[in-house]
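Review this today:
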Amino acid sequence: MTGKNGKILIVDDNEDILLSLNMLLKHHVEAVRVTPNPERIGELMDTFDPDVVILDMNFKRNQSSGEEGFHWLKYILKKCPDTVVLLITAYVNTEIVVRGIKAGATDFIPKPWDNLRLLDIIKSGVKLRLSRRNAMPQHHSSSIPALIGESHQMRLLKEQIVKIGATEANVLITGENGTGKDVVAHLLHLSSPRRDSHFVTIDLGTIPEQLFESELFGYEKGAFTDAKTAKGGRMESAHTGTMFLDEIGNLTQSMQQKLLTAIEKRQITRLGSNKLRPIDVRIIAASNADIPQMVADGTFRQDLLYRIHTFELHLPPLRERGNDIILLAEYFANQIAERYHLANNTISESAKSKLLKHNWPGNVRELQHVMERAMILASDRSITSDDIDFPRNIKSKDSSETLNLATLEKKTILTAIDQANGNLSTAASLLGITRYALYRKIEKYGL
């Protein structure tokens, strides 16, 4: 471990354990506090604010069930959910490990421990606490990714999320594929008065036009051949909550009209029914397309744009975010190390330099995949530049060959499909469009 970062609280009734851990860790971290009495955890959480808590699982003589540890684990995470808790015990089995991870523990430390392995775990824990604090506003469901970044653009974006999230205003999120538009949508919801209600997502780029109404508005029994029972749509599910309409730029004119009517009237009608059902939803939409330009081109309704565009939040591409690339790489390294129980979660300077020089056409999503491959394939504890491998990019055709836009687009689509070995989802990702948009282009060009 390099540098003295992180504050560590150690809670164990064995004075020898406390002494040993204190002697080891004080040379590697910012500060260490120890206590044999778990009743002091609350006080020390308030006054010391530890990044990592090393928590014994048994405090009574001849106890090995770990129930005390689980009790105090729950207490710590309720008091400060972003704290990293490491459970330490001489009685480790698979059942206890699984239960501990599900309860929110980050890792287990066996007694006796390996010093180097312990230091690696502590270092990862400190980084994880920092990354959790960078995720703003704070939310502790592992299903919600963090919004990592300290660049000027991201600081401004975080401030806007807090201000706009607290309102009922509809929001349009724009940005290239892979920049994290879904993360911003989640955080807007969590910043809002609707945070305790449903957050419902629908990827409009994957919904065929003939299924649009049934997916969004629901249907009654017998509305069509396979409608054996009635089913509510996504908008009903989002009632009193937030509706996230991803890839809204892919809607046809007919679909746009139906969506606009539902938003304006704040009510929907299921297929096969005449009954109007009131809906109370906040609309957050996202697109990688230039919606105002689509309005100018006549392919997107201006009145619908007005309805979804009280505010616009733009996510900058990763290539414009400077050192955020390294912050994100370290965040993903910690996540992946935890998931696969790996030790190589540090990134060498040569690897950082290589990451910073890359253009990141796939943005944050590409970086996550690059780091996962590097972590799994690396042979050393530290990720080196040799471990960083980028997917092949689509090569531009020589402009002297042709400037016909349709021809260039057709050739680019064929190149992407070839590089993706026929996998249309991968090809769509390479092209920066949705699968549904790719299907439409394949039909258009008869590929």
About this structure: Residues 135-144, 394-401 have pLDDT under 50 and may be disordered. The chain has four domains: 7-134, 152-314, 319-387, 405-445. The longest strand covers residues 84-89.
